[in-house]
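Quick question about two entries, pasted in order.
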Amino acid sequence: MSQLGVLRLPRTIDFGVLARHTLTLAVTSYGDRALIVVDPFLATTAEFEDAVSRLRDVGVGVEIQSGIEPELPVETLHSAADSAKKFGPDVIVGWGGGSALDAAKLIALLAAHGGTLLEYYGENRVPGPVVPLIAVPTTAGTGSEATPVAVVADSNKALKIGVSSPHLIPSVAIVDPELTIGAPPKVTAYSGIDALVHAVESYTARSLDVNLAETMPVSVGQNRLSDPLSLEAARLIGPALETAVARPGDIEARTAMARGSLLAGMAFGSTGVHLSHAIQYPLGALTHTPHGLGTGMMLPYVMEVCAPVVPDRLAEIGEALGVGADGAEAINRVAEIGERIGLPRKLSEIGIQASDLPQIAELTLESRRLTNIAPLPVDLALIARILEAAFEGDRTLLRS
């Protein structure tokens, strides 16, 4: 096992009920002009309006951008960045789900360095620090408040494109579980299962040959410092997700989910994620289904194909999920959680046809940044096997 340990994290993480009230101090530590990127349906909530009022009460000039579209079309982000440059913020705040946080990251990048997003696609292409970022998530799932990645939709590309750089890690993460209470059950389910995917895939990532004397890749693979974070995330999410979906106002479940999502983001921000995410990108593009729905659907199948090469790791995940040190039971438990929160079991249930599978497999292999982190060699035949099993809803097809 590799002894490598790498964590790249926000300078400050504030977690807990009412943590949102630390936003004023965080903003004023950077200056007196704040651009806030917020999901449009959150811009009129009492919590957001109170946060803005507190900032203005201490003399902070606030500009609000609430016109960010879902899936983050490139053109929308370029326009938002142009407005940001005119305003000249000392700090940019992202308030909302993963799209709002990723939009804030990309606006901060363009405001600092100019150009177009095309210039920054891929890894380690951001030349230096961006405008300081504060992330305030309102869903428990993406972990974007602690990660170096932002994903954008480019109409010229078949798949979503990532911009990955340690410079995109927010300077401050403010995680208040109360802000997630308003999330609808489906949003809670899809974002929450994605957090579990982050925990499992970061813990089962391949050990990479990384030279610490050189510029490291954004994702360094199996990681001794992130391992405990991944397991604790799974331990928190396992029992809490079903409760948060069934009883949206349960603050204990919401707190466990918020902490689990944060820890999973802290973990995979360094290790990376692998096959569930690589497959989801073409799945999502083809079906226009939510990201977490796709990654959550694929996770049991990915765990099944990984089981022969990482049995000990899956057994430890089983312990974290409360089913004992048994990799097969860990997979069963993940599948059970998905079923209980309403995830489809078969790809055919989200509109995938058998004739779509070859194209999905080919597009999956284009995400080499992700497939290279899987704990086993990945080729077209392996992806085809996973997709066939998921199409049929039969994990036993992956056991021979």
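Here is the second entry:
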Amino acid sequence: MNSVRAMQRPTPAAVLELLKPITWFAPMWAFACGVVSSGLPASERWPVILAGIVLAGPLVCATSQAINDWFDRHVDAINEPNRPIPSGRIPGRWGLYIAMIGTALSLAVAATLGSWVLGAAVVGLALAWLYSAPPVRLKQNGWLGNSAVALSYEGLPWFTGAAVMAAVMPDWRIILLAFLYSFGAHGIMTTNDFKAVEGDRKLGVHSLPVMLGEDTAARLACVVMALPQVVVIALLAHWDRPVHAVIVAVLLAAQFVLMVPLLKDPKGKAAWYNATGTTLYVLGMLTAAFALGSGGA
């Protein structure tokens, strides 16, 4: 009997795969941008900074992955049947249990970091459940779903990083940059949707590539990624940070070059662009964070 029960529990390797550590990078990077943009010295705040990094990545983001995979298990059975839940390596309702445990742990850690951090965590976790769980299931609509993910991956972690450092509401310029880069991340989420177009069509998931067509969705994604960066460049110049503005402009110009092959073959080049153009995008984020953190804004 004990051996049967052991077989019904997921292995640590399967749980780790479910939580997708590779996805933790984006919110952890955004959290670091928040820390940098605060302009406050980190030397005396390392315990809370490390706690915040864990909260952004291994807790909130990982929990969102478990939530998504649990409610997306039928789609994954078509698109990616080797994932932990559809393959049976996460058996029974363990996917749901892991999502619930992750939610509770995330809120507990966030509560130790202050009310602003707790508030951001509540919003992020609420969006994670609304994104995947019926009856709302925001991911059924590419406009709403991508907005929720973009805010959770970029804006909220950035806000959290600044709030951890200051222990108060972050400066309005920090919030503005976090919002702009969240807006641009909507385009990144659209390019990420190309990998699941076939399964989304079969199951009625209205991603932007499904609703608009792959070519139109790719063009829209490029515009959405580029437009907020143009605004950031103008703001940095206005805030007397010309060097930072030029760096972001150069990074954007390089993204334009990489967008050319993406637009020619959206489905074939989407993953490639996410590994190249998105890297330049997040480097621009960090540049903008340094601009604010240097005290010149």
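Reply: Residues 175 and 186 are 17 Å apart (CA to CA). The chain has two domains: 1-170, 171-297. Hope that helps.
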